[in-house]
Structure formats: structure tokens, C-alpha cells
Write a structure and sequence with these properties.
The chain has helices at residues 38-47, 65-68, 71-78, 89-94, 106-111, 174-177, 192-203, 220-239, 246-252; strands at 5-12, 17-23, 27-30, 57-59, 82-85, 128-130, 134-135, 143-147, 156-160, 164-168, 172-173, 179-184, 209-212. It has 262 residues and is α/β, with parallel strands linked by helices. It has a six-stranded mixed β-sheet, with helices on one face. Helix 7 (192-203) packs antiparallel against helix 8 (220-239).
């Protein structure tokens, strides 16, 4: 199996929002950007010398609009099947994210008011429902989908055979990618401690780089140092009862939950 290359597909700005093209025997796209970004993504794909009709698979890292907003259109334009985790099936099927957003800090509180994050996008039915670690060998790629819940229940990352981790929103660059190379939380997490546990599990696999949804690739050692500090911060917040999770929200308002059968 050829070595897998990881190439960025800028969706917003130079690296504020990213999708990725993974090249092995066949090409695979990871994430689908915001609504209306499918043709921009395919323009970048073509610039890398890849025919969009050759795309073998589209992997969605999670059910937020800046990651699956154009998935249905990308599916139509390429004919490629779409893979997403079953725990985020509700957003994919309805075209709506789970709300309320659960901000990590001031930026998240500000962004949660953005109307563009509350629109309904074209829904889709994933062709492949991910339930656990999933090899991509059948799609011509030396890589595997790794469940990394916490940011959302159905968050996943893609780990290549050479150690590149395409991490979605498991971690980000500071200020939505504006401060390059500095690890930070994305604006929202459904379960901060769960996300940190997933991040530590991925770091234990010794990735060479972390390719993130917001910003430039991150150095694993720098992420490890940040994760240690973040663990201490979250432990203090949890001890004071100041961590809210999606499970807390659902328990407080069970009538708001939409149950989607697998």
C-alpha cells in the first residue's frame, strides 16, 4: 500500500476551516466544510491533480455545520460514498446540529450567537455507519477511522499508517487557527473531559502530526504539554461543578432530544 499523503483543502481563509485530501492508491476526502463550499473543495482537489470522479470515500469527522455542511452536495458531485459515526446520525439525517452549543469560553459564547451556525443544511444518509475502529484499506488508503468522542458523541479522527492524524475538532489552533501552531480548544465541546480522554488516547499512538479542522498542523509534543495543562484546568472546573456536558443538557430537557433509530 502506498504511503498516504495528507493535503489541506482550505474551506475558509487560508486555514480557518479545513477539509483534507488523503492520497494513497485512491483519494479520500475528510470533511465537507460549510454549506456551499463543495465546489471550492473540489477546486482544490483538482489543483492537486485529482479527478473528483476518482474520490473513493468522504469521511465526516463529526456533525457540526462547518464539517458536514456540504456533504450531500459533495456526494452528488463525486458519487463517492459518505462515512459518518452512528452517534452523530441525528445531525446528518436532519441537517441540524444538536443545540444548544456548549461553549468552551468567550469565543464559543460569541460564536454560539452566529445565525449561520443554526441554519438547516441539506441532510444526508451516510452510506457507511462507523461504530468502531474502521480500516480504509478497501478504499485504497493505508489508514483507519478512529472514534474520538467528546467534541460530539460521534466525533472521529483518521490515522494513517505513517502516523498522520487527521483530527477534526479533537484539538485546534488558538483563535480558530489565527495563532498558528498553538494548541487550543475549538469553540465548543459536548463533553470536554471525554474529548480530552480521546485526545490522550490518540497521542498515546505517537502520531507524527495532528492535522486539525481549524489551523495548521500541530506538533504532538506541544499538544501533550497543552493537554496536561488542560487536564488540570478541567479537573478544577469539574470539582466546582462548572462543566456542562451534552448529557447534562439532555437530562435536564429530555423532551428536546430527537431519537433517530439506527
Amino acid at each position: 500500500m502506498p504511503r498516504t499523503k495528507v493535503l489541506p483543502l482550505p474551506v475558509l481563509g487560508r486555514h480557518a476551516v479545513n477539509a483534507y485530501l488523503l492520497l494513497g492508491r485512491r483519494p479520500v476526502i475528510v470533511d465537507a466544510g460549510m454549506p456551499g463550499s463543495a465546489r471550492r473543495i473540489l477546486k482544490h482537489v483538482t489543483a492537486y491533480g485529482v479527478d473528483p470522479a476518482d474520490i473513493a470515500l468522504i469521511v465526516l469527522t463529526h456533525g457540526h455545520l462547518d464539517h458536514f455542511g456540504s456533504a450531500a452536495e459533495l456526494h452528488r458531485l463525486t458519487g463517492a460514498p459518505v462515512a459518518g459515526h452512528i452517534a452523530d446520525l441525528e445531525p446528518y439525517r436532519t441537517g441540524r446540529v444538536r443545540t444548544p452549543y456548549l461553549p468552551n469560553g468567550p469565543m464559543g459564547r460569541l460564536m454560539a450567537r452566529n445565525r449561520n451556525l443554526h441554519v438547516q443544511v441539506e441532510p444526508l444518509e451516510p452510506d457507511i455507519l462507523v461504530r468502531g475502529e474502521t480500516s480504509l484499506d478497501d478504499f485504497g488508503l493505508d489508514a483507519r477511522i478512529m472514534p474520538t468522542p467528546g467534541h460530539t458523541a460521534g466525533s472521529v479522527s483518521v490515522l494513517t499508517g505513517t502516523g498522520d492524524l487527521v483530527a477534526g475538532d479533537l484539538v485546534a489552533n488558538s483563535f480558530m487557527g489565527l495563532v498558528r501552531g498553538r494548541p487550543a480548544n475549538p469553540p465548543f465541546h459536548d463533553d470536554p473531559l471525554g474529548n480530552l480522554a480521546s485526545l490522550r488516547e490518540m497521542l498515546a499512538l505517537d502520531p507524527t502530526h495532528l492535522h486539525v479542522g481549524h489551523g495548521t498542523p500541530l506538533d504532538p509534543d506541544r499538544v501533550r504539554r497543552w493537554a496536561a495543562r488542560e487536564g488540570r484546568r478541567l479537573t478544577r472546573l469539574a470539582a466546582r461543578g462548572r462543566l456542562t456536558t451534552r448529557a447534562d443538557v439532555d437530562a435536564a430537557a429530555p423532551d428536546r432530544r430527537d431519537v433517530i433509530a439506527p
